[in-house]
């Protein structure tokens, strides 16, 4: 079926969803999407076997969104995920795909996030709930989550939930939601216990098994550069300039517009480049490919669909200017080089937020992708000088220079200079548009992105074993404040009585090397406000949260949207908006950071029921806890912590 599906429009998706897919650069469905979406659209139960990185999130999210009635504000779909990271990732994907669905609301719920926040969001209503098993059970028991009208259930990474000991919780949830529902179960492997769950709870499921592209051409050297700062184009041109054996290259971007823009920018820098995208007619496409084959073009900037089937022997490099959305697309991209026994090079640009996808590519393809050292100014100068010398030597070997020798002699006599000085002047004229030494302005811009001297960033990609989780997430306690030596103590605007504090999210975290001290210093200095107005800061791997006054001046907020920490823009935004996917605050009300429930009745600092009003429901003569119902069957032992 996959061979006959070239566009998402062929799958019967609505125009708002198709527009959202176009906005994010999706052009053609992956194998799992092409096979699963029609089955789920027909209302069939599904048992899917697919590795992470094959595009399975869109495979279940798109038909799920297609079948929603956004005018009815109650949970119509539930996705169970093993970890809060995956729950947030799926929620963000749903929000992205539903960009043009007015009034759509998705809510991730997981342990480690304040129950108060979740209760408030549940009261507002949500169409799709993405949750970890333990926290979903909590809300079902306290009746704060009503799934009586649930239409669709998705079990994502079922084998991972089994490995982490959540399968009993999953079965409890399956027994407490409507039996008349559509169910989709996705798992990378199919152990016997997962197979048993599928046989018990799925109705005549259709099976889809996708074999991931687990191998790439061994002749292809794969490297990546971690994007830093705003000089991606500069880095691209420098890398191409010093790459050995670069004959021709295909540069992959996500959108049709990006192909045109990047082609124009490279042409302005002296490269023979052209765009290749789906808007081009067949004649134009064939002309570009023919020019690439004949040497009329050296660089083609393409989208995934437009580059399908290209086999040009002189393509020595594939550069992923934009990282692909799934592993299958990556394998297809780099397969444009290193064909028929030839060698090739693949280079991948990866932002700090995309490092997880890089590790997924390595894991699924079972190949290591080594880091690329960005060339220094000396590397670029040496390369330019070597190329210039080679041109001069070839010209000398070609002969027939007697006329020009006579011209040089005349210059020597008329200007009273030596032959060396004339040669230097001629070399300057020839290289004037491309100096052998980089101009100082270009050097400063270039060195800002150099990987030399930049500390290696530590990434957390592998999920820890169950006993390790509490040590992994150290969070500042309430009331702690970092030492603010760089934040202009006492200086800056006095905001007076600031009123309520509001939580903001900024897109820098531990993986970018940020510290509370950096955040305080940046906000205080750039926004020109006193550091005493900066509240609680919580650091996470890929982002951080900071409390700031609700009355923060608009001009200060606009400034903070543009500034950077560790060469990464803050992109600051509030987290109290209804359409936001709420970032996790520090652990609160018991439980661990991945959605597993706290022991019954556990509360911070002591035994008994929750001390906050409305969260205890103690009954006379009984222990504190969630109250009311007797303990459910098949409950796993509570985790300590």
From TrEMBL:
GO terms for molecular function: helicase activity. Residues 6-34 form the DEAD-box RNA helicase Q domain. Residues 241-380 form the Helicase C-terminal domain. CDD domains: DEADc, RRM_EcCsdA_like, SF2_C_DEAD. Its EC number is 3.6.4.13. Residues 619-628 have a biased composition (Gly residues). Its main location: cytoplasm. Residues 632-641 have a biased composition (Basic residues). Residues 443-496, 585-641 are annotated as: Disordered. A motif (Q motif) lies at residues 6-34. It comes from the Bacteria. Keywords: ATP-binding, Cytoplasm, Helicase, Hydrolase, Nucleotide-binding, RNA-binding, Stress response. It is found in: Cytoplasm. It catalyses: ATP + H2O = ADP + phosphate + H(+). Residues 37-208 form the Helicase ATP-binding domain. Residues 443-494 have a biased composition (Basic and acidic residues). Belongs to the DEAD box helicase family. DeaD/CsdA subfamily. DEAD-box RNA helicase involved in various cellular processes at low temperature, including ribosome biogenesis, mRNA degradation and translation initiation. This is ATP-dependent RNA helicase DeaD. It comes from Azospira oryzae. The gene is deaD.
């Amino acid at each position: 079926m996959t061979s006959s599906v070239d566009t998402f429009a062929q799958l019967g998706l609505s125009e708002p969803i198709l527009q959202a897919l176009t906005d994010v650069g999706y052009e053609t469905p992956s194998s799992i999407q092409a096979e699963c979406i029609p089955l789920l659209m027909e209302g069939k139960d599904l048992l899917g076997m697919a590795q992470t990185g094959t595009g399975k999130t869109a495979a279940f999210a798109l038909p799920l969104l297609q079948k929603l009635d956004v005018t009815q504000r109650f949970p119509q779909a539930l996705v169970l995920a093993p970890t809060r990271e995956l729950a947030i990732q799926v929620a963000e994907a749903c929000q992205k795909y539903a960009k043009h669905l007015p009034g759509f609301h998705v809510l991730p719920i997981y342990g480690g996030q304040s129950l108060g926040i979740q209760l408030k969001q549940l009261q507002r209503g949500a169409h799709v709930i993405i949750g970890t098993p333990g926290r979903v059970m909590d809300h079902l028991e306290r009746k704060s989550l009503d799934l009586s009208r649930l239409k669709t259930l998705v079990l994502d990474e079922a084998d991972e939930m089994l490995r982490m000991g959540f399968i009993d919780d999953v079965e409890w949830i399956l027994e407490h939601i409507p039996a008349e529902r559509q169910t989709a179960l996705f798992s990378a492997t199919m152990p016997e216990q997962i197979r048993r769950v599928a046989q018990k709870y799925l109705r005549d499921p259709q099976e889809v098994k996708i074999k991931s592209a687990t191998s790439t051409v061994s002749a292809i050297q794969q490297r990546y550069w971690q994007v830093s700062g705003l000089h991606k184009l500069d880095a691209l041109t420098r890398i191409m300039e010093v790459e050995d054996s670069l004959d021709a290259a295909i540069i992959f971007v996500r959108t049709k517009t990006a192909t045109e823009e990047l082609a124009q920018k490279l042409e302005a820098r002296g490269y023979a480049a052209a765009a290749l995208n789906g808007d081009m007619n067949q004649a134009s496409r064939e002309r570009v490919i023919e020019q690439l084959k004949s040497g009329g073009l050296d660089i083609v900037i393409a989208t995934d669909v437009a580059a399908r089937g290209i086999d040009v022997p002189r393509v020595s490099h594939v550069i992923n200017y934009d990282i692909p959305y799934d592993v299958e697309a990556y394998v297809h991209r780099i397969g444009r080089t290193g064909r028929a026994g030839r060698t090739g090079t693949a280079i991948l640009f990866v932002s700090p937020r995309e490092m997880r996808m890089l590790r997924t590519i390595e894991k699924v393809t079972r190949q290591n992708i080594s880091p690329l050292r960005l060339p220094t100014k000396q590397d670029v100068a040496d390369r330019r000088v070597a190329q210039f010398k080679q041109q001069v030597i070839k010209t000398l070997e070609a002969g027939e220079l007697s006329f020009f020798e006579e011209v040089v002699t005349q210059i020597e006599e008329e200007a009273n200079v030596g032959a060396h000085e004339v040669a230097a002047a001629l070399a300057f004229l020839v290289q004037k548009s491309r100096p052998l030494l980089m101009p100082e302005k270009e050097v400063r811009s270039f060195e800002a992105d150099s990987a030399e001297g930049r500390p290696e960033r530590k990434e957390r990609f592998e999920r820890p074993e169950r006993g390790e989780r509490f040590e992994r997430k150290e969070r500042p306690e309430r009331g702690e404040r970092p030492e603010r030596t760089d934040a202009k103590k006492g200086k800056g605007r006095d905001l007076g009585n600031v009123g309520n504090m509001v939580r903001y999210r900024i897109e820098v975290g531990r993986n970018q090397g940020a510290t509370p001290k950096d955040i305080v210093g940046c906000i205080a200095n750039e926004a020109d406000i006193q550091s005493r107005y900066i509240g609680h800061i919580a650091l996470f791997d890929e982002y951080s949260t900071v409390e700031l006054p609700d009355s923060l001046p608009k001009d200060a907020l606009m400034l903070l949207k543009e500034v950077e920490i560790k060469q990464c823009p803050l992109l600051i935004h509030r987290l109290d908006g209804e359409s936001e996917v709420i970032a996790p605050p520090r652990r609160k009300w018991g439980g661990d950071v991945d959605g597993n429930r706290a022991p019954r009745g556990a509360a911070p600092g002591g035994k008994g029921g929750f001390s906050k009003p409305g969260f205890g429901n103690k009954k006379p003569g009984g222990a504190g806890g969630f109250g009311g119902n007797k303990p459910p069957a098949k409950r796993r032992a509570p985790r300590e912590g």
